[in-house]
Amino acid sequence: MKPPTTSPTLDVAAIRRQFPILAREVNGNRLVYLDNGATAQKPQPVIDAMAHYYRELNANIHRGVHHLSQQATHAYEQARETVRAYIHAEQAAEVLFTSGTTAGINLVATCWGRKHLKPGDEIILSTMEHHSNIVPWQLICQQQQSRLKILPITHAGELRLDAFQELLSERTRLVAIAHVSNTLGSVNPVARVIELAHAQGALVLLDGAQAMPHMRVDVQALGVDFYAFSGHKMFAPTGVGVLYGKAALLNDMPPYQGGGEMIERVTFDKTTFAELPHKFEAGTPNIVGGIGLGAAIAWFAQFDAEAVTAHEQDLLAYATAQLSALPRVTILGTAPHKVCVISFLLADAHPFDVGTILDQQGVAVRTGHHCTQPLMDFYNISGTVRASFAIYNHRAEVDALVAAVARAANMLA
């Protein structure tokens, strides 16, 4: 394998040295990790921050007067402030720690939906949504006798804004769409979606799971009402995520779960709830996960955003050109605005078979429907092979991917 390329503003070789797992071998080959859309690898500073908590600070938070509890509380709340500053929320109280994007979306569906959805009300989703942004809305619509309306997409994988304007009505209460498609990589025109939805009096929730690892998100500039994302896709540990919500909306919503930490006063007759954000954070949280998320964001924020985008767009263009040159390869999702995600098919070969052959050569990709079965139905397929890139990938790994796909094509011909 050729050495990784570098640029004056983004030293990919130095970045790679911070990820211990990238030195691994798989099946006798140096690991080529291209499954970042499922979960990203963790840099040493994140690993160190989590180890430091367990080694030096391990204690429960918000409840103890002893030294370790105070230190752990400070570290956890400092992580919340790191998130607030990174996404430019107005106040830290608008940053709720969750277990991930799925939990954040379910929180809004349950807490906001039970209070505000009425029979006949409508929620708009898109054809490209992840199951986590479909099923919670199905459940709450069944409970509230509301209904879903589905925004179609083009064959290239773009939202049809003309159809969106036709779907919006006085019955629209909320629009819930992906900022970036996890399967196609399409970057949706969310600013325009928000503008149109707000003009109709509807709220907007964005699934930011796939956007956060690739771009800087300013929730105030977008004007979005709710924004959910996961830590593990942006170099943080699993089991932690964030739901951003405008304070007025969160204050108006009843709590999601009951228990310790989220209360102000409990009697057998009545319970009053704590202020934001604690009202929605019942029980002992994933303390080390929150600290790890803060460390991951601090690590990622040190890199120039334009340099990261340029590097990843170079990988996307190079990989697209190289894969397209292979006979029998078809790429799905050709929107002009994409992050570095490529879903493809190899003739009539089953994606699982292709993925298995790639794994034998040390190339890790994702195969299947990617939790977007309605999107697979739109393309009339059962699944794809998906290669998803991150800041630490380089062109030599694209070459390894292309060579592995070419070998799979020969073996499966």
In CATH, the architecture of the largest domain is 3-Layer(aba) Sandwich
What is the name of the CATH superfamily of the largest domain? Answer: Type I PLP-dependent aspartate aminotransferase-like (Major domain)
Which outline best applies? globular
Taking all Cα atoms into account, the compactness measure Rg is 22 Å
Q: How many individual β-strands?
A: 17
Strand order of the largest sheet: 4-10-9-8-7-5-6
Low-confidence runs? none
The major β-sheet equals: 7 strands, mixed
Give the count of structural domains.
Answer: 2
CATH topology of the largest domain: Aspartate Aminotransferase, domain 2
Average the pLDDT over all residues and give the rounded result.
Answer: 96
Strand content: 15-25%
Distance between the termini: 26 Å
What share of residues is helical?
25-40%
Number of helices: 14
Mind telling me the CATH class of the largest domain? Alpha Beta
Given the helix and strand composition, which structural class is it? alpha/beta
Can you offer a commentary on this structure?
- With 413 residues, the protein is an alpha/beta fold.
- The chain has two domains: 12-30 and 304-412, Aspartate Aminotransferase, domain 1 (Alpha-Beta Complex); 48-301, 3-Layer(aba) Sandwich (Aspartate Aminotransferase, domain 2), CATH 3.40.640.10.
- Helices cover 39% and strands 17% of the residues.
- It has 14 helices and 17 strands.
- The strands form five sheets. The protein has a seven-stranded mixed sheet, sandwiched between helices. Strands 13-14-17-16 form a four-stranded antiparallel sheet, covered by helices on one side. Strands 1-2 form a two-stranded antiparallel ribbon.
- Helix 4 runs parallel beside helix 5.
- The chain is globular and about 70 Å long.
- The two termini are 26 Å apart.
- The mean pLDDT is 96.
